[in-house]
Each structure stands twice: as structure tokens, then as C-alpha cells.
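Support request, priority: normal
Reporter: lab tech (M.K.)
Component: structure prediction queue

Hi team, I submitted a job for Thioredoxin-disulfide reductase from Halonotius aquaticus yesterday, and the status page still shows it as pending. I've pasted the exact input below so you can check whether something in the sequence is tripping the parser. The sequence length should be 344 residues. Please let me know if I need to resubmit or if it's stuck on your end.
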Amino acid sequence: MSTTDGVDPEAEADEYEVAVVGGGPAGLSAALYTTRLSHDTVVIDRGGGRAAMMLDTHNVIGVPEEISGNEFLQTATEQVQNYGGDVVRDLVTEIERTDDGRFYLSGNSTEIVADRVVLGMGFSDERPEPPLPRTGKGLHYCLHCDAYMFIDESVYVMGTGEATAHVAMIMLNFTDEVDILTRGDEIEWSEETQRLVEGHPVDVIHEDIESLTRGDDGWLESFTFEDGTTREYRGGFAMYGSDYNTGLATDLGCELNDDGTVIVDDHGATTADGVYAVGDITQGHNQVPVAMGKGAKAGLAIHKELRTFPKSLDELEAEGPVGETEVPGVSPDIRNAAEAFGDD
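Reply from support: The job had stalled in the queue. We restarted it manually and it finished. Here are the results:
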């Protein structure tokens, strides 16, 4: 690893076995598992993210609907900390592989060296141009999360691509009032998809939106279009694609899928040794429970790589039997946290 003016930045860095970049459901789940499985773990989280935007939590067994995304994440963060993990609020700007095969992570105020890295930065939804209703109160991005609330309601789907057309037709499972809003842009879906749209009771509105009205509760009530017509909507979905946060992954040599997600195996391991990716940055359903499962699987896989015992036969032959003073293989910080946790 390079140095500046002869000073090795690793010398000042905090050392961990596992560094998790991203404090969403996937990253926090990975950290929870690695921490509870006795590995010194740090989560570096810049804040925000899709989960933090949730006004209510849907589709997570055991979590009431009225729990907001921020409340959900705060509880998860406190769990990781109570088990002995560290959580740092910072933006990781660079990750480099060190000469001994570890990883040096630097941020605005953070320097960390870790044996394994878990990337869980997710993606950002591409937002259409205003005027728009409030996110979560008429503007939505996840059909699987929010379609239920639009049963028998008037719904729009905004966009021009294949996903727009198919989400509009899927919404007919929930309501008989579905419009596609192209906002004045040219349709980009295929001729075959156009035939499908024509075969379903979906209206395509080409005029752009001029203004909107909201109710006293902040929810969308209607759009007025540039031709002067007004249509009432309870809400709808914007389908303009996703911007995956893969800069750190590609810097580390992780290969990407054609859709921009990071290639991983069934346990979250990327094509770069020692680097894992979890959650929405990988392929699959963008759902909180799915992200949590990916994080858990990565945490378990990392434990199997890093755990001290059992020693291999080669290690025993080279080092001799494991002495009683060498066990348990738990760091002092995790041990102290476990003792304090048991006293609560």
C-alpha cells in the first residue's frame, strides 16, 4: 500500500476483522451475525438510503406497520452495538487492498483496516422531474411493498420503459383504474409489450403534468395535465431505473452483471477475494426481508472463513495442540459486551 511522506496510514487505523460499508437492513444483518459470532465488526454508514425513507414498514414479519424506516434501522443499529459491534457515521471514499491482503478503508474522518469487507450501499431510485407528490404519500417505487395499499384505488405508473408497462399491467391485479403517464416522453417499450398494453384496460396519458393537489394528510389527490384535464389518483409508481452505488466495488475488482448489480455467489462473495456484497447492490428482489437474509448468509460465510477453531491438522502439526489458555477465541471487546448483555 502506498504511503505519504514516509508515513504508513495503516499505523493510525482502527483494526477490525469485518468492516461493513452501509447501514441498511442487509449491512446491519451481516454485522449482527459477524458480531454475535465473535468477530470484531464495524459498520460505516453515511445515513439515508431507501430503507430510511420508509414512512411505514411493510412485509417484515414481527415489525408493526407503524414503525418507520428510521425507527427500524435505529433498533437494528442498537442491537449491533449491544452485541459489541461498532457503528460509525461516515462516508467511505476509498478502499485499498493492503500488502498483507487486508483492506484499508478511509472516509471523511475514518481510517480502518479489516480482514473482510461487506459492501451494502444499495442503490438510488432515479426520480422523475417535478411536480411530484411526497415520497410515500403518492409517489412510490416498490410495487411489492405498496401495491396492497392501492386496492380499488386510482393508480398511475410513470415512465416509458418495459418496467413501466409491466408494472401497470400487474397493478390490474389490485385495481381497475390504472394509467401510464409518459410525461410527454417517447414510449421505449417493445412492439410486443405495446400489444400487451393494448390488450389490457390501461390508459396511456402522454401529456406532461402541470400541477398537482394534495389532501390535508399530505397524500396526492390529483394531477392536472398540460392539456387542462385533471385526473384523480391515490398514488402510483415511478419507474425510471436505478443508480447502483458500485464505485467501491469496481475499485476493488468486483465484476458487475449487465444490469449494474454486483456479481455474487449464494453467500454474497464477490469475484474479489475477501469482498462480499449484500442487499440491493446485488441481483434479486429489493425487499427488506430479502436484504436481511442476504446479510445473514454473508455473515455466516465470513464466520466460517475467520473463526479460529477448529484448527486444521496441518496447523496442529505445525503449532502443536491447542492449549487451554488459547480458548475461547473471542476478542476482549466482544467478550465484555456479551457479559454485559447477559447482565441486562
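Residues 288-306 form the longest helix (19 residues). The chain is about 25% helix and 25% strand. Let us know if anything else looks off. Ticket resolved.
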